[in-house]
């Protein structure tokens, strides 16, 4: 029995981004009383962890929050940062979410058959908890950054805003995922000398055979492929996203073309000592692998067009416009004129505030389609929660609808079973 002095809700949602707000929409649809706690402000990550020139890499038509699809004049455009924030804020107003901004959830535990949710403004109890906090909690900067000379400015990609923010001199960007490549492009277009450490992230065409590649991939059902149908299974959750951009109406990101224009590309960073970087001999291999994925996507689209007799312009597969020479295995930061480093090295998860047997051996919430092994606890808004579209505006509402339907059924019948197969 819950403590009578504490407010109680049938459901508590932790996180007020698009995932938590989608959960709130579906809870309202079921008539379930709830509260949404948001540590910061609505759309905090979009607002505060994106650079000035940031825009979506998926077209606007994929913004499909529940009963609130994109309704603007450019369905095939790419919303910039401030418009994304406005879209999420408008959704919150549309659903009239019971949102508590500026209230941090500090601990979630279970006491006497109910969940105790301790916040910065006091505790509440709940019959069910939906964790809508994604998996990107703490900026991940490798320990080797501690060996960088003090004179060099270092920031994580989440703190990057524009080229003027960084001191004069060349800029080293470490990491070639979506953020790293787009930040490198932002600096390159501003005329800055850029060194880019290239990893294993794949690339994707922006437009191919008369349409955005995303449109073709959607027709092919790629965004509806479930984690259980994917050849990699749960391992796909650790894959890097394909790099491309929606900037200036959308285009490919071609690192080889940047190199031909003066950007300096390097293999993976393996160490830092005495003011110098140690680099792996894998630049050519990483570029070739990214191009192979690019052309593989083109080939997939080609087969779809041929199999369905679709009238479409002819397409050309990518041919490298630049090849790396003998790789440099050491890079002296001072001699190269590098005055700053942008660490585009992702984020770490932090579930330490969830005092429940929720995590697997890798520290990842064990779940199947958002239903965890802890009865009454759900996750939503995580990459590949169920499909490729799960971490996007496209499918986060559908995922939230599934977990709330399960939550509602549990409320009607507390014996509602946890799905048999839990993702690990």
Automatic annotation (TrEMBL):
Transmembrane segments: none annotated. Gene3D superfamilies: FAD/NAD(P)-binding domain (3.50.50.60). SUPFAM superfamilies: FAD/NAD(P)-binding domain (SSF51905). It holds the Pfam family Pyr_redox_3. Signal peptide: none annotated. InterPro entries: Auxin_biosynth/cation_transpt, CHP04046_FMN-dependent, FAD/NAD-bd_sf. It comes from the Bacteria. The keyword Oxidoreductase applies. Keywords: Oxidoreductase. PANTHER family: FLAVIN-BINDING MONOOXYGENASE-LIKE PROTEIN (AFU_ORTHOLOGUE AFUA_4G09220), FLAVIN-CONTAINING MONOOXYGENASE. This is Flavoprotein involved in K+ transport. The lineage of its organism: Bacteria, Pseudomonadati, Pseudomonadota, Alphaproteobacteria, Hyphomicrobiales.
